[in-house]
Design a protein that fits this description.
- The chain is of the alpha/beta class.
- It folds into three domains: 122 residues, 3-Layer(aba) Sandwich (Rossmann fold), CATH 3.40.50.2300; 174 residues, Rossmann fold (3-Layer(aba) Sandwich), CATH 3.40.50; 134 residues, Orthogonal Bundle (Helicase, Ruva Protein, domain 3).
- It is 51% helix and 12% strand.
- It contains 19 helices and 14 strands.
- A five-stranded parallel β-sheet has the order 2-1-3-4-5, sandwiched between helices.
- The longest helix is centred in the first third of the chain and has 38 residues.
- The chain is flat.
């Protein structure tokens, strides 16, 4: 149903229009003069305005048209005119009308014009909404993959960020990310794409290890109808979909020798053929590849083509494992803790002993293992303070748990309260970067009182 304003000084025409249009389910408002029409436009919003050009002079109709467009730019206007000449049509359209119709029209013709205009309005609104959603999502995604989301202050991470800052503005050069599983290679790939000149084009992610050879080839390069059983139509591959943007080839070290040959050809001239096809297709795509294997060793063992390795290894970037950046662990724990506290709506904290124990773990699963653990602890914690005994056995063993429980059983209530206060203060000091004034304000404490407690507990900035 549309809100329609019908403007005509002739009551018979106005009433006939109102009756016919309301019969189609539209809500009709009438106006019999310029002043009445302007008043309605000031009071309400209309999806469509139908106005006579003469009410009673030509200037009045044009004024109503301009006022309607000025107040409601998204609304549609159709003008009824006594003269359907080309010159008059140009004049009316220049004044802002979306359509015009000469007097003597049939009601079916008018309804057809109106429905067409309403459909145009609907499509414009849909396009505007899609554009707003796209821009919002793009802003969210770009924010999610800012370089600031690569958490850490260790030398390894600082060196990584400095290299990324030099790489990100380049449009074409191939990047090879190497590092153990769980170190964050995909996060780095997304950061390169969404902060670079191709950010407005697609980022297409392909897990090369997840598909067998014949499926991976057709997935990357597409196929022609009839290329194999089940190929009932032409299908574009990931490289075509990524045209203008970036393709992220994860676990590139696991691709077969046949796919290596096809990929080598593409890296030479950005041209390929679909499976079952013979027409070369050229696309503009930047390649970011990643692997948890040492490709130089794979080359030495004859499992990976040397020429392809050199093509991919233009800008090699090594993502360090977590055990080589243990100083970043408190920052990562706090980052994941804040993330899951918001998502799960839970007030959870880590005891200082728990953080100390996490720092001693080897982290074979790297950052992904740490993130998964923090999420699990936030979800399953029975109290607001996460103790070492809440950690899984591979991090806090049974013998350590028994020793911890024994120590806890010998601790007085006062000692336990002091231990909690110490951990609580340390967390807030780290949160506010050891700005004691800010912490005092946040906790509602006097600054001198807070300073005495910091000295009493021997708390120091790392």
């Amino acid at each position: 149903m549309a809100q329609i304003l019908v403007i005509d000084d002739e009551a018979s025409i106005r009433k006939a229009l109102a009756l016919s249009l309301s019969g189609d389910g539209h809500a009709i408002t009438e106006a019999d003069s310029k002043s009445a029409a302007l008043e309605r436009l000031h009071e309400h919003s209309f999806d469509l305005v139908v106005t006579d050009l003469f009410i009673p002079t030509e200037a009045d109709g044009i004024e109503i048209l301009k006022t309607s467009k000025g107040r409601q730019p998204e609304g549609m206007v159709i003008v009824i005119t006594a003269h359907g000449t080309i010159e008059r049509a140009v004049e009316i359209v220049k004044a802002g009308a979306d359509d015009f119709i000469a007097k003597g029209f049939t009601m079916e013709e008018l309804k057809f014009r109106l429905e067409r205009l309403l459909e145009q309005k609907r499509l414009r609104e849909e396009h505007r909404q899609l554009t707003e959603n796209y821009n919002r999502l793009r802003h969210e995604i770009t924010g999610r993959y800012r370089f600031e989301q690569i958490i850490g202050n260790s030398k390894a991470i600082r060196d990584l960020l400095q290299l990324l800052a030099r790489v990100v503005d380049d449009r074409d050069t191939t990047v090879l990310l190497q590092g153990e599983s769980g170190t964050g290679k995909e996060l780095v790939a997304r950061a390169i794409h969404y902060n670079g000149p191709r950010r407005d084009k697609p980022l297409v992610v392909v897990n090369c290890a997840a598909l067998p050879e014949h499926l991976l080839e057709s997935e990357l390069f597409g196929y022609e109808k009839g290329a194999f059983t089940g190929a009932l139509r032409d299908k574009s591959g990931k490289f075509e979909i990524a045209d203008g943007g970036t393709i992220f080839l994860d676990e590139i070290g696991d691709i077969s020798s046949k796919v290596q040959v096809e990929l080598l050809r593409f890296t030479q001239d950005h041209t390929f053929e679909r499976v079952g096809g013979n027409q070369p297709i050229t696309v503009d795509v930047r390649i970011i590849a990643a692997t948890n294997k040492r490709l130089d060793e794979e080359v030495a063992q004859g499992r990976f083509r040397a020429d392809l390795f050199y093509r991919l290894n233009v800008i090699p970037i090594f993502i360090p494992p977590l055990r080589e950046r243990q100083g970043d662990l408190p920052l990562l724990v706090n980052h994941f803790l804040e993330k899951f506290r918001r998502e799960k709506s839970r007030e959870i904290r880590f005891a200082s002993e728990t953080l100390a124990r996490l720092e001693k773990h080897n982290w074979p699963g790297n950052v992904r293992e740490l993130e998964n653990l923090v999420e699990r602890l936030v979800v399953t914690a029975l109290q607001t303070m996460i103790l070492p005994t809440d950690l899984p056995p591979e991090i806090f063993g049974q013998s350590e748990k028994e020793a911890f429980d024994s120590a806890m059983s010998q601790q007085s209530l006062q000692e336990a309260c002091e231990e909690f206060e110490k951990a609580f203060l340390l967390r807030h000091l780290e949160k506010h970067h050891w700005n004691i004034t800010e912490v005092a304000q946040a906790l509602g404490e006097r600054r001198d009182t807070l300073s005495r407690k910091i000295k009493r507990y021997g708390l120091k900035s790392k």
